[in-house]
TrEMBL record:
Organism encoding this protein: Psychromonas marina
Name of protein: TetR family transcriptional regulator
Alphabetic keyword roster: DNA-binding
Lineage, highest ranks first: Bacteria, Pseudomonadati, Pseudomonadota, Gammaproteobacteria, Alteromonadales
Domain HTH tetR-type: 1-61
Entry keyword annotation includes DNA-binding: yes
One Pfam family named in its UniProt record: TetR_HI_0893_C
Source species, domain of life: Bacteria
Length: 197
């Protein structure tokens, strides 16, 4: 890992642990194992560091979300891959959600730039929903609303598992994923795994 990425990784961890105002450049330098002055070779100030951290997280999140994605897959297969990847990502790195929420709330960062749906890295995700709407398979609703109904279920399910409030099974994962797919359909679909199967 290069120094720049090392700084970003350390910043993400400290932000999750201490929040924005508890993250000083000295503490960050100590965490990254570098001299404090080295940080300024890569980032002009703390605000620029936070903006770069957001971009870094977004790029990594997109790579994770689209792992295994292929245009050769059916629309349902694409959805399942994205949904499962999001679920696994939250379980593997729960602190990242907290960091992303903090970055979104920082007044010096343009909130439009902290919206994953506005980032080019997630363009295939947007096109996936637009195609579904255009083909009248998905409800003709704002993509943010469709996302809230579909992929937010993956995030929230992972949170419940992490909080040990839910014991997850492969069957339950499939059922919740299928249910979240069905709810965004303009026309109800059948033949998916049911709760009583």
């Amino acid at each position: 890992m290069g120094k720049r990425n090392n700084i970003l990784a350390a910043a993400e961890q400290l932000l999750a642990e201490r929040g924005f105002y508890g993250l000083s450049m000295k503490v960050l330098a100590d965490k990254a194992g570098i001299a404090a002055g080295t940080i300024y070779r890569y980032f002009d100030n703390k605000e620029m560091l936070m903006a770069e951290l957001h971009q870094h997280i977004t790029q990594e999140a997109a790579q994770t979300a689209f792992q295994g994605w292929s245009e050769q897959h059916s629309e349902k297969q694409k959805y399942d891959i994205l949904w499962r990847n999001v679920f696994d990502a939250v379980r593997a790195n729960p602190q990242r959600l907290a960091v992303m929420d903090m970055l979104y709330c920082m007044p010096h960062i343009n909130q439009r730039n902290t919206d994953l749906l506005q980032d080019d890295a997630f363009l295939p995700f947007i096109e996936f929903f637009k195609k579904g709407i255009d083909e009248k398979r998905f409800h003709d609703w704002p993509i943010a609303a469709l996302t809230a109904l579909s992929f937010d279920s993956s995030i929230n399910l992972a949170k419940k598992v992490l909080q040990e409030r839910l014991e997850i099974t492969e069957q339950l994962l499939t059922q919740v994923c299928d249910a979240s797919w069905m709810i965004i359909q303009a026309t109800p679909q059948h033949n998916l795994t049911t709760i009583n199967d």
